Amino acid sequence: MTRVYETESPEETFALGEMFGRAAKxxxxxxxxxxxxxxxxxxxxxxxxxxxxxxxVVSPTFTIVHEYTDGRIPLYHFxxxxxxDVDEMEEIGYDDYxxxxxxxxxxxxxxxxxxxxGGVQVVAIEKNPEKGFDYRKITAEGFEKAEYEDSGN
Length: 153
Ligand code: ADP
Ligand code: MG
Prior knowledge:
By secondary structure, this protein is α/β, with parallel strands linked by helices. The protein contains five helices and seven strands; from the N terminus they run βαβαββααβββα. A seven-stranded mixed β-sheet has the order 1-7-6-2-5-4-3. The radius of gyration is 14 Å and the shape is globular. The structure holds adenosine-5'-diphosphate (ADP) and magnesium ion (MG). Magnesium ion binds next to helix 2.
């Protein structure tokens, strides 16, 4: 299923991430696509909150992956922007994350496309200058219907 959302503020993107986080299941690998500054980390911060993560979520740009284990299931937050070769993913033992009991969110996943497992889910975030500075179009692909629905209330 593909579903399109529109947000008008970081808070709305955070809330959308939170909704997906509440529905997250072990084994999910979610690629976050979109240019620098589009809101991938904001979405992830909301997602973490939806999982019940209390630790502050900051971008793992210099370390490739941050693990948050204080939520309902482990969250592995990747930012692979600076990766030059997928060997760097081998070095951190990426398959333990992809095929572990948690959920992976990967910023700049297109850089490591060749090692992504089949059946990944995608959340693509885009700006549209005609619709204002804070407008974002957010397209979610590959999720089941239940994962789109806000079960939190
Ligand atoms: P990325 O991780 O994609 O590089 P960040 O999440 O770090 O981007 O930053 C997104 C920036 O865009 C933040 O400064 C945020 O306040 C701003 N912003 C403005 N409007 C939105 C929106 N609708 N959704 C998400 N972020 C927004
Ligand atoms: Mg980021």
